[in-house]
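A quick aside before the break. I want you to see a complete sequence-to-structure record at least once, exactly as it would be stored in a machine-readable document. Don't worry about memorizing anything.
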Amino acid sequence: MTTTAITSNDVGPERSNSVVTSRARRASMLSLGPLPGRPSELELRLGPFPSIATPEVELYQQPIYPEDVALASKAAPVGTRPLEEEEAKIGTDDEDEMDKKEVAYPEGGVGWVVVAASFVITAVQLGFSYSWGVIQSRLEQRGLAPPLTLAFLSGVASCLPSFLAIPASKVVDLCGPRIAGLIGVALISSAQIASSFSLYSVPGLFITQGLMRGAGSALCYMFFYRRRGLATGIVSSGAGVGGAVFAIATQRLIERLGLEWTFRVLACLCAGLCIPAAFLLRTGVTQPPIPSAKARFQLFEWSLFQNRRFILFLVTALLVSFAFFIPPNFVPLYAYSIGMGATKGALMSAGYNLASAFGRIGFGVVADQFSGPLTAVGLALGLAGLSALAIWPVARTVAPLALFAMLNGMGCGGYFALLAPVCGTLLGSQHVSTGLGAIEFVSSAGYLMGSPTVGFLLSAFGGAVAGLSAFRPAIFYVGGSTLGACTIAFVIRFLTNSKLFVHV
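That is the input. The structure line, written in C-alpha cells, reads:
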C-alpha cells in the first residue's frame, strides 16, 4: 500500500490537530488496531481495500515513534485502574477547589444588623455566665451548699457550651442560625424561670443552671465564615459588656427583689432582648459554600493533629481553661470574705468584664498592626498570669483588687479574641472553624473542673470565712496555670519564627 501524505489543507484544522498533534491517541490506537502491512480479518474475506487517503488509514501509516510505543505499553487497560484512587483524587480536587473558591460576601447594610443582633445575644448569654459569681456568693451566704458544690455547678454551665460546640454547629448547619438561636434563647429563658423555683435544691439547680442553660448557650455562639476584624471584635466584646451590666443589675435585683424574682426578671430580659435579635440572624450569602459529604459528617479533621504546633496550642488552651472562669466566679466571694461587701464585689466583677471587652478589641488591634497573633496571645496570657501572681495575693483593699480585676480581665479577653487568628496562622484560614471546635472541645475539661478545683482548695484551707489565707492557694493555682500556658504559647511562637521582631 502506498503512503499518502495528509496536510492540514486536506483534512481541515480540526482533523489536522487530531492527526498530527495527538500522539497519545495514536499510541492507544496502535495498541488496539491491526498492525501495518498485515490484512485484517475483513480484508481476508472481501479482498484488499482500495488505497484511499483518509485520516483513519493515515493513522495506521504514520511512522511509529519510540515514545508512542512506550506510552502505549504503560497505558492501563480499560477497567483496571482502581476506582478508589480516582475517587480519592476527585475528592481532593473538589476540596481544594472549595478551599480556593472565594465567596462574595456583602459589605455593610444588613450585615451590620446581624452584627448588632449577635452582639445582643452574646451579651445576654455570656453575661449570665460572667456574672454568675454574684449569684454564687449569695447562695454561699444562704448556706445552700459548700463552695466545692457550687463551683462544680458553675463548671457544668461553663463547659457545656464548649463541649457541645461541634454538635451545636451541626444543628446550625441543619436548621440555620435563626432557628438555632431561637431554640437556645428558649432554653436559657426556661432555665432562669425554673431556677427561681429550685433555689433550695442543688440537683434542681444542676438541671436548670447547669444542663439547660449550658445547652442553650451552645446554640447561641456566633461564628463568622471569614474573620471580619471589626465585626468579630464588636460581637466578642458583647461578652464583657454583658458581664459588666448583668453583674451590677443582678446585685441590685437581689437587694430589692430577692434571689427568686431576680431569676424571673433575668428570664424576661433574656426573652425580650434575644428573641427579636434571633429573628434578625441570617447567613451572609444566599448560596454559601457547600462542603463535601465527608466534611459534613466528619466531626474532626484528624489530619490537623499531625501539626505539632497546634497540638502544643491545645495544651495551652487546656491550661488556660482551668483558670479562665476563676476570677469572674470567685472575685465577688473574695471581696465579701475580706469585708468589702457584696456590692463592691459585684462592682469588681463588672470591672473585670468591662476590661475583658477592651482587651478583646485591644489585643486584636495589637495582633493586626504590630506583633501578629502568636506573639499577642503570649502577651495576653502573660498579663493575666502576672496580675494573678503579683497583685491578687496582696489585694486587701479596693484599689489593688480593682487593678487586678482590670488587668486580668484584659488578658483573658485578649486570649479569647485571638483564638481564631491563631488557628488561621497555625492551620490556614480554611481550617479555622475546625481548629476552634477542637480548642473548645479540649477546653471543656478545664471549664468543668477548674472551678471545682478552686472550690476544693478553698474548703480545704478554711472556706471563705478564713479570708485571704484560704484563697491564696487558689490564687497561685490560677497564676501558675496561666503562666505555664504563656510559656508554651511563646514556645509555639518561636517555633514558627525564631526572629524576635517579626509579625507572627
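Two observations worth writing down. The chain has 23 helices and no strands. Confidence is low (pLDDT under 50) at residues 1-37, 40-46, 48-103, 223-228. We'll return to this after the break.
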